[in-house]
Amino acid sequence: MKKIFVSLFLCGCTLAFGQDLSLEDALLQAKSYKKEQGLLEVQIQEIQQKINRRKQLPLLTGEANLQRNLIIPVTPVPSIAFDPNAQPGEITPLKFATDWSAKAGLQVSWDVFNPQKKWTNKQTDIQYEKAKLNAALNDENLEKEIIDLYAQAYLAQQQLNIAIEKEADYTEVLSVVTKRAEAGRASEFEKNNALKTFYEIQMNRKEAQIVLQNKYIGLMNYLDVSNYSSFTTTIEDVLKLKLEENTNLQQQLLLWDVRLNEEEASFNKKSYLPTLTLNGYYGAQFYDNNLRLFENNNWFGNSYVSLGIKIPISQWLEKNAEQKKLMLQNKLATSKLNEQKQNDDQIDAQRMNDIALLKEKIHQQKEIIQL
Questions:
Q1: C-alpha 9: how far from its chain's center?
Q2: Where are the beta strands (DSSP E) in 188-324?
Q3: Is 204 exposed, middle or buried (0-12, 13-18, 19+ CB in 10 A)?
Q4: pLDDT tens readout for residues 92-147
Q5: Contact yes or no for 94/79 (Cβ under 8 A)
Q6: Residue 158: exposed, middle, or buried by beta-carbon count in 10 A (0-12, 13-18, 19+)?
Q7: Which residues lie below 8 Å from residue 154, measured CB to CB, with a gap of 6+?
Q8: How far is Cα 53 from Cα 49, in angstroms, rounded to an integer?
Q9: How many CB atoms sit inside 10 A of residue 116's CB?
């Protein structure tokens, strides 16, 4: 009867779920399901790097302008400039424009030296490395979460199997006690006591079943568990995998924060250097009282090359405050790094304690099964 009870219950679970699920399959499914966000962050930084590299090239723009002068302004000029016989102080009003004017040409600008662009490029490179680390850290955290959930589900499954075995065993005991009570060889008190114990065992089995269902629900956030009925990777193999987890990715991420602050401090000293920009223009200007754009005689060439310099002046007033702020930021980042190292050491110690506790639970479960 015991074997029939266990077989029927396990058959029901198999029909409800289906196949076996190994830890390796669970990790593969979960990573393919949750990996997109980290990859998108890396792709964004890769595109930003390409944009920054293109900004190193000269900026070429085309411009065109067509203007209708409704009221042509009058400019007073000394009459003696056109008439030697003009009286001193005599003014002649002149119009130096036409009804229509236009402009078309190409403008080029290139930063020969720009400390801000160099800092932007360096900042993007660091953000790219951080994005890759973040993606790897997300994968690692996901893997840890799946391993923990899988281990909990495996233990819940073992506890349910023990509860089923125990319920099946006590079903036979209850049947014997009931028959003895009916034959008058056992008291009603013994029968009620056996029935009470059976109900408690049955409730434990139901609780174990609910715990296992909740573990399935926890895994549903990362993979589809509707087709699986049991977990095949033993807890010993799970523990071996947990012992191998020690990549210190969070520390590496904080190291990049420290480096970012150091680079920013270095840039802050150079940010007060002047910016040199080479500008050039090649085009033509149009003047005519009638809109005859295709008349070559109405177009006049215009071209120039210039070298501009921009010197920060008021920024010098903020130099000391900026340096102090960057020093504090670097100190904070270093403090977080040291704190993370301590946390990692504590987590390693806690992991070893958790593993020892799990091994003890496994040993006790094996002894219960043997009983």
A1: 44
A2: 228-231, 275-288, 299-310
A3: middle
A4: 888 778 889 999 999 999 988 888 787 788 888 888 888 888 878 877 778 888 88
A5: no
A6: buried
A7: 231, 233, 234, 235, 238
A8: 6
A9: 13
- DSSP letter at 298 equals G
Asked if pLDDT for residue 14 goes beyond 60, the answer is no
Q: Is 276 helix (H, G, I), strand (E, B) or coil?
A: strand
Q: Which residue has the tokens 């479960």?
A: 365
From residue 310, how far is each of 115, 117, 235, 241, 270 by CA, in Å? Answer: 12, 14, 67, 59, 14
Are the C-beta atoms of residues 228 and 20 closer than 8 Å to each other? yes
> 148: left (phi > 0), else alpha (psi -120 to 50), else beta?
alpha
Q: What's the length of the chain?
A: 371
Residue 245 reports pLDDT greater than 60: no
- C-alpha distances (whole Å) from 308 to each of 119, 238, 243, 312, 315 are 21, 66, 62, 13, 19
CB atoms within 10 A of CB 332: 13
Neighbours of 6 (CB within 10 A): 16
